[in-house]
Amino acid sequence: MTFDPPDAGSDAGGALTDAGTDSGFDAGMDAGADSGVDLGGDAGVDLGPDDAGLADAGVDMPPAMCGEGPACGMDEVCWGEGCSCVVEIDGDTYLRPDGRVVYAGVTPQALAETAPGVPLEGVVEIMDGWRHGCGLRDDGTVWCWAKNSLGGQFGELGDGTTGTGRTLMEAVQVMIDATTPLTGVSRLSNRNNSRCYIDVTTCGIRGADGSVFCWGGDNSGGGTGSLYTLGSVGNRPFATQLESADGVPLTGITQVALGLRHACAVDTAGQVSCWGMNVGGPLGTGD
Q1: Which of 214, 232, 15, 27 is nearest to 129 (CA)?
Q2: Whole-angstrom Cα distance, residue 277 to residue 248?
Q3: Which residues of 180-194 are buried (b: 16+ CB within 10 A; e: fewer)?
Q4: How far apart are CA 228 and CA 21, in angstroms?
């Protein structure tokens, strides 16, 4: 399974964008955004009392707000030096053992909700993007939310809309079209830390056949090299199925990783396929 890399002209265009634009992005970014450490869900981080040495090392820990025992209280935002009610950390978003999602990038910390006062529940995996976040629920559906006023601008919430001014931390369900929700998802793409370009993109893998659906901004930095392999660059506000060739769905995928302007996938045979912009050779094609 292979993808056609961008032509030489596209690479050249991407290189010019790289030289002339990236520095502007870097200069304009909040320094705090780059200081976050992504510990990942597989790191097995224990934030309980045994880790009190973090405070001694100069790490600024919020006050503990956990209840007794291993489970979180229903109304508690569980975080801090004295508790361990976090099972996954991705950027500044945390997943609690009760399946609720906490965004710690604001004060006070916020819970993702499907409606005012109705927390999003049953989440088993989270993905923290640049201005949005997404969660995979135990029923195979995916829900996304805006973390600031620009979240959703490029369709990254996957509900068919684009634009700003979304209600912060209000989770909406990712849809394939106006009436069909994306279901059967078993895994989300990783957090890519690109801040710009495709950090407004999220992908989900269906467990049944390993097909891949992505949504959000399809901005690979100029030129060709669509992340959706459909031959055009543009926002995808609905979940769009990726193709390995024209009219041939990409299937058998077990993992998807998003880079700065490209993406790669691993299939059940261990083969790696990449697509998008080839600036710096990330597609592995030797050019």
Answers
A1: 214
A2: 21
A3: ebbeebebbbbbbbb
A4: 23
CA distance 47 to 42: 14
Look at residues 255, 216, 191 and name the one whose alpha carbon lies nearest to residue 227: 216
State yes or no: cis peptide before 249, omega within 30 of 0.
Answer: no
Q: Are 285 and 15 in contact (CB under 8 A)?
A: no
Name residue 280's amino acid.
G
According to DSSP H, which parts of the chain are helical?
8-28, 31-35, 53-56
Contact indicator for 87, 102 with CB cutoff of 8 Å: no
Q: Tell me the residue type at 250.
A: L
CB-count burial class (<10 Å; 0-12, 13-18, 19+) for 71 = middle
Residue with tokens 């895994």: 187
What is this structure's pTM?
A: 0.71
Q: Which sign, positive or negative, has the C-alpha torsion 173, 274, 197, 148?
A: positive
- Looking from the CA of 181 toward its CB, the CA atoms found within 13 Å total 14
124, 139 contact by CB (below 8 A): no
Q: Which residue has the tokens 């229903």?
A: 74
CA distance 223 to 149: 28
**Chain segment 127-180, per-residue pLDDT in tens:** 998 889 999 999 999 999 999 999 999 899 999 999 999 999 999 999 999 999
Q: Dmax of the chain from CA atoms? A: 61
Q: Which of 51-55, 85-89, 163-167, 192-196 has the lowest mean pLDDT?
A: 51-55
217-243: pLDDT as tens digits: 876 544 455 666 555 667 889 999 988
Strands 253-258 and 262-267: antiparallel
Q: Provide the mean pLDDT of the chain.
A: 72
SS3 208: coil
Comparing CA positions, the residue from 175, 113, 98 lying closest to residue 141 is 175
